[in-house]
Structure formats: structure tokens, C-alpha cells
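Protein in question passed on here:
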Amino acid sequence: MELFIEVIKFNIYISPLILFFILFTKKISKYTFKFNYFICLLIVVRMMFISKINLNILNINNTTINIYKHNIDNYIPYDQGITLDIFMYIWILGIIAISFYYLRTNFKFYNYIENFKKEILEIDITSILDEQAKELSINKKLQIYKVKGIYSPAIIGLTRCKIIIPEKKYNNKELRFIFKHELIHYKRKDNLFKLLISIICIIYWFNPILYLLKKYFHELCELSCDEIVIDKCTTSEIKEYAYIILDTIKYQKSLKYSSFVSQFLNKKNIILKKRLNSMFNQDKKKINLGLKFLLTFIIIGSIFSINSNFKQNEDVEYTIGKINYNKNGETYGTHIIDSNGNSIEPELIQTIGRGKKVGYVKKRDLYDCDNQPKTPEEAVLYTRKRNFNIFKKTIPLYDKEGIKIIGRFEIN
């Protein structure tokens, strides 16, 4: 339950930022595709961490601090909890179903490749690949295969990568461009990042914005790669490279194979046309280093959310009342004086959390004392809800003051 709530909160938090990034970078043409690709990678890596990332900044000199009131009434009633459980199980079923679809699709694709691949051993072709690999400082030797039924060269795999090309004749200049393009994908580990973004789309399958991000990331992979390939090329060489892409589009229209390959063509065709447009757009300006740094800092700051956590030694000011430290008794923590003058004691219980870390848990986190069942019917529902939980629930593990979270405690 706790994980599901964090997933929902995280999606609400990061979705507007992703949408802004996609719309902003598509609207402003002066930023290079390589820069947009780099920012997209940061977002992909950030999405692998569900919880909010806080950067704690220590400030010993400050003796006062504003501490915001903990909302002690912010607990989910048992009936709302049951509804959330239903949504959580739907979310889990969605993850299982989409994972099965991804696995089935990839199995079908790789099975197709295995059945129709033919290794290329000609020295004149493999020497061109070795030459391009040396230019890009790639020491690993990759295998090349011709595959019947594909129209576009590609690199497949994560650890044992292979370059596959269609069953058509390329001249040496075309092969240089093709191999350089695919080796750049290999060097940047694009296949790994495509796998990560697929995992993200599986976890957050209910969020349509992430499918837009995935589509945009795949486009940026190709466009930024083209940008690197033609970076130091003359106008005539750029035209030759563009003709390879044009020929690829023409070639795919003459092929009719399995339904999976057909689906693959429909998606790639749009990207190929965008690649042609970008290559002949000579008005694209390169963003200067200072602006790159500024935009990167703004986006990273927005995505990773920097929070300050100051340490104080003397007086502590409270936004509503005062906080006094409880020095005696079996319970530890702080006496919180609310706006009505009532004294509230957190009643922390010493325990051992995950990783054998010693800390304190709040009684209110152990059980919902404000929303206990009032009738036999409610008691039955409440019991079913607590028992029908396939995940182990965890609650925060606090320090002695009951303010700073130092770990997690698992409720068995």
C-alpha cells in the first residue's frame, strides 16, 4: 500500500515536468538533439527512483529554524484504504500483463532474427566495421548479420551486441555511415536506456505522459546519433547520408513479412522522416556552454528536488506553537503545543529497524487509533483489509527526537 501511494504521488509530482520538457524542447529548435538526449537520460534515470530524493544541507551556525507542523490527522480511514487496495491490485495486474506483452514481443522479435540471420564474414565488410570501431575507441569486436525481412540496420542486445543489416547491397561509403551510426548507439549504451524506459513504462503503465516520453526518447536516440555522425561532414557527405535514409524508406515499402515486422516499420517510418528534415535544417544553432549549464541546473534542480535540513543546537521556533524536549519518562520525543495550547506527545517506541538500525517508531504509525472499527461489520472489513495485504508494510524509523527519519521499520 505504501509503495502504491508513493508511486501515485511521484507521478503527480514529475508528470508536469516531463510534459514541459517535451513541449519546450520540441518548440525551441536551437537546442541540439544531443543536449535534449542528455536531459532525457537524466529524467529516465530519475524515474527509476520512486521516492523523492532529498539533499540534506548541514548548517551548524544557525540556531533557529522553522519546523512545520506534522499533520497527525493525516491517516487513511479503513474504508478508503480498501478502495486504495483495489486500485493497488489493479496496478499490479497491469504490471504483470504489460510485462508479459513486452516479453512476448521481444521473444518473437529475437526468434525471428535467429531464424533468418546470416553472419557476414567478408573481410572487406568486417574491416570497415573495425575501422569505425577504432575511430570511436571501441575495443570489442562485434558480429554482423544480414537478416531477411528487416529494412533498417540496427544494433541488438545488451551484453553480446550484434549489428544486423537488411539483405541488400551497400557500397563502402554507405557501410561506413551505417556502422558508425550503430557503433555510436553501442558506445552510448542506448539499448540499456531503452530497456530502462520500458521498465519505467511498465511500472507507471497508467500514466500516458510516460509513453510520450518513451516515444520522444527513441526519436532523440536516432536524431542525436545522426547529429554526431554528420558533425564534421561536408554538405555533399550529409546528402549521401540522407540518401541512405531515403533509400531505406523506399526499401521497406517493398517488403511484406510478419505482423511484428510490419508494426516495427510503422513506428520507425515517422522517425526516419524527422531525421531527414533535421539534417537539411542548416539554421539549427548550437547552444553555448553557459546556457547548457544553466538549463541543466534548472532541470536537475526541478527533478531531484533539493531540500535543506538544518541542524540546530539551541532554540527551535515552531510555526504554530513551541517545541520542548522530553528528557524523562519511558516515552521519548517532543511535546508539541498546538494552537489551542494542548500538549501532544508522539510516544515513540524504541525498536530495531531494517539493517539492524536502532531507532524509534510512533504508536500512531503502528495502528490507526483514530479510525478503529465501531461496528462488527466494520471490524470484519478492517480485519480483511489488514490480512489481505501481499506486501510487508513499513513505517518510518525516527531518531530520539522523533523528527528526523533515519530508516524504515518492517511490520510483520
Remarks:
- The chain has two domains: 2-304, 320-411.
- Residues 53-76, 254-267, 306-331 have pLDDT under 50 and may be disordered.
- The radius of gyration is 28 Å.
- Residues 2-304 form one domain.
